[in-house]
From TrEMBL:
<feature type="transmembrane region" description="Helical">
    <location>
        <begin position="80"/>
        <end position="100"/>
    </location>
</feature>
<feature type="transmembrane region" description="Helical">
    <location>
        <begin position="17"/>
        <end position="36"/>
    </location>
</feature>
<dbReference type="Pfam" id="PF05977">
    <property type="entry name" value="MFS_3"/>
</dbReference>
<feature type="transmembrane region" description="Helical">
    <location>
        <begin position="296"/>
        <end position="325"/>
    </location>
</feature>
<dbReference type="InterPro" id="IPR010290">
    <property type="entry name" value="TM_effector"/>
</dbReference>
<dbReference type="GO" id="GO:0005886">
    <property type="term" value="C:plasma membrane"/>
</dbReference>
<keyword id="KW-0472">Membrane</keyword>
<keyword id="KW-0813">Transport</keyword>
<feature type="transmembrane region" description="Helical">
    <location>
        <begin position="266"/>
        <end position="284"/>
    </location>
</feature>
<feature type="transmembrane region" description="Helical">
    <location>
        <begin position="153"/>
        <end position="173"/>
    </location>
</feature>
<protein>
    <submittedName>
        <fullName>Predicted arabinose efflux permease, MFS family</fullName>
    </submittedName>
</protein>
<feature type="transmembrane region" description="Helical">
    <location>
        <begin position="179"/>
        <end position="199"/>
    </location>
</feature>
<keyword id="KW-1133">Transmembrane helix</keyword>
<feature type="transmembrane region" description="Helical">
    <location>
        <begin position="48"/>
        <end position="68"/>
    </location>
</feature>
<keyword id="KW-0812">Transmembrane</keyword>
<keyword id="KW-1003">Cell membrane</keyword>
<dbReference type="InterPro" id="IPR036259">
    <property type="entry name" value="MFS_trans_sf"/>
</dbReference>
Length: 420
């Protein structure tokens, strides 16, 4: 098997099962988030309520992230992932029950909102463990020499699910309503849970089993902050996502600015992921590890420009194109970041490093949603999106000036060392 084979990781049966599990989970999670956003904004017509959804998920995700990384490094990964997916299934079933017509008729809007926010909060707890577990499991399924290829396919699967989940959510809301859309989500979570049992248990590679929690956490943080390539990539992406979180405001654009309904909302929500998926499929044949630093800076700059264009647009298809291109350049950013993490992280620290990644990048999506909701409330929706895009451009410029070493980052040597 050649390391230059674009399908190298797909030659492993368990990796294909892993991709099915990841697809089903991301599909369910992204679809669920869209359905919740639509329901909450339809109930309240308040942009701040959309921000609160993100805040309710990010609080437990951030507060538990480092502890979750310690647990992941200490435990067997397959069984831990089973527990995570089971937890998500319980939450999705709870949201299904909350959307029952009889429940909506019996309880007032505030009570339903509190119920949704509570379940989203518990979803944040699950997510704190889910990301590090998935990141750690990949390294136990494929050989080290094809980590970059496996990371690309894993990210591509994530994006494909992110395309179809939101797209189906928009059409599903229109065709079968919120309640039965929640039932579809629950079904996909059960599919992921069933498929996961076809992956065998994996060895625990951490030699420090039983290590005190705080010592373990300190070791993980020290590694991230001393590894400049990881720290630079995480920081840049975090700021971009934090201020470029226009996606959280899409229900407002769909309903009140572009007037395209739930079907148009599904198209808008899927457009970034379509762009990212195309980028990622292309990267399996045209790797991005050479001159990675420059490519990452250019990609994030392009993302900021796309957000400004989207914010100013009053034409549906121009908005779709802007979101599509934002996803395409964001796909470049995601691949480079994941490649850096896979190549630079030792096996015994993958859970902790992935947790820090979750705090920097994953949680910034929800913080970005909250920031967008607050700024939209204070400045207006369009001004909030343009402000976020402008802050992203300023961040890229500042990073390029103060970190010349990051501009020169090249992963070619690291890839060759893993291939040898």
């Amino acid at each position: 098997m050649s390391v230059n084979d674009p399908y190298a990781a797909l030659r492993f049966k368990e990796f294909n099962i892993f991709l099915l599990v990841r697809f089903a989970m991301v599909f369910a999670w992204s679809m669920q988030f869209i359905v919740i956003e639509w329901q909450v904004y339809s109930m309240t017509k308040d942009p701040l309520s959309l921000g609160i959804i993100g805040l309710m998920e990010v609080i437990p995700a951030v507060s538990m992230a480092l502890f979750a990384g310690h647990i992941v490094d200490q435990k067997e990964k397959r069984n831990l992932l089973i527990k995570c997916i089971f937890g998500f299934s319980v939450i999705s079933f709870g949201l299904f029950m909350l959307s029952l017509p009889s429940v909506l008729e019996t309880y007032d809007t505030k009570a339903i909102l509190y119920g949704i926010y509570t379940l989203v909060f518990f979803g944040g707890l699950v997510r704190a463990f889910l990301g590090p577990t998935i990141f750690s499991l990949i390294a136990l399924i494929v050989p080290k020499k094809i980590y970059p290829n496996a990371a690309t396919w894993s990210s591509t699967t994530w994006q494909m699910a992110s395309v179809l989940g939101p797209a189906l959510a928009g059409f599903s809301i229109s065709l079968i309503g919120v309640h039965w859309s929640m039932c579809v989500i629950f079904g996909f979570s059960l599919l992921a849970l069933t498929a996961l049992f076809n992956i065998s248990k994996k060895p625990i590679l951490n030699p420090k089993i039983g290590e005190p929690v705080f010592q373990s956490l300190k070791e993980g943080l020290n590694f991230v902050f001393k590894t400049r390539a990881i720290l630079g990539a995480l920081t840049l992406d975090m700021i971009a996502v934090l201020f470029g979180g226009a996606v959280a405001l899409l229900p407002i654009f769909a309903q009140d600015i572009l007037h395209v309904g739930s079907e148009g909302f599904g198209v808008l929500r899927a457009a970034p992921a379509v762009g990212a998926a195309i980028t990622m499929l292309g990267s399996t044949r045209f790797p991005l590890h050479k001159n990675a630093g420059k490519k990452l800076l250019i990609a994030v700059f392009g993302f900021g420009v796309c957000m400004i264009v989207f914010g100013l647009s009053t034409y549906f298809w121009l908005s779709v194109i802007a979101l599509f291109l934002s996803g395409a350049v964001d796909g470049v950013s995601m691949i480079i970041r994941q490649t850096i993490l896979q190549l630079k992280t030792p096996d015994n620290m993958r859970g902790r490093v992935a947790s820090v990644n979750s705090m920097f990048v994953g949680s910034s999506n929800e913080l970005g949603a909250f920031e967008s909701g607050v700024t939209a409330k204070l400045m207006g929706t369009v001004t909030a999106v343009v402000f976020g895009g402008t802050m992203t451009l300023l961040t890229v410029g500042l990073t390029a000036i103060v970190s010349p070493g990051f501009r020169r980052l090249d992963l070619q040597k690291d890839v060759e060392e893993h291939e040898s």
